[in-house]
Amino acid sequence: MSAQREAAGPFPNPLPPGEDQRSAERRAGVSRGRDESAPVRSKALAIYLMCGPETPELAEAAVEGGADLVELGFPFSDPLADGPVIRRAAERALAQGMRTGACLDCLAATRARLPHTPLVPMTYASLLEAYGWERFAADAQTAGATSLIVADLPAGERPGIRRVQLVAPTSTDERLALAAEHTDGWLYLVTLTGTTGARDDLSPALAGLVVRARAVTGLPLYAGFGISTPGHARAAAALADGIVVGSRAIEVAERGAAELGHYVALLRRALDERE
Questions:
Q1: Domain 41-272: homologous superfamily in CATH
Q2: What is the pLDDT of residues 245-257, one digit of tens each?
Q3: Residues belonging to the active site
Q4: Exposed (0-12), middle (13-18) or buried (19+): which is 265, by Cβ within 10 Å?
Q5: What pLDDT is recorded for position 77?
């Protein structure tokens, strides 16, 4: 383990006594905050939801449907990585008053409903710059975050803020290795160039990105961006260790918690059918 990762904080060490970092990271990649009595699935399912008044209920429904991890979007006025669905969701959230403090309250309320599920805020560097980097990390931990994703913060910058790193098909081998060295538990594979959003087909670039990532790390690899259907989930899981579903989950969540739970269950079934 690098000295930077060993010293990074402020999120707590997730390892049970007697378990080393490498075995834990290989085990599932979602262990921090996870109920250790629950079965470990071979393929992880992460669902992205935008923070809002209804988010704790939606997150609970997603987990009941089979999600292993929930990403909580902290809305930002200029989300460069996000497509139209998540942009609209961010606009609605901001109109509802979901500024950083309110989002942290949403995170805490979600944690109260889901005491054993990894919860990962996802946002942009400008929000943390305005709030204060160390202050945000500390307050997010207090509210129940198990890690953090900062979509536009390159690997190697702000090494004291432990977070999940993103890599894309356009990432150089050097950048990919750096991200793998500094990431927190798992590596987020952006399957395509461009913004988030549902696509008709799974990106053909994912296979090559997985091969390159496997060459530099034994950490779990989760594929996201453009995954929306059970077919996409099944195909992506044949290559990666887990998937992240965002835009389509946001769309379904607009129809309520029951619809979201049903949708997540379909994704879960597609992942489990491979086993």
A1: Aldolase class I (3.20.20.70)
A2: 999 999 999 999 9
A3: 71, 82
A4: middle
A5: 83
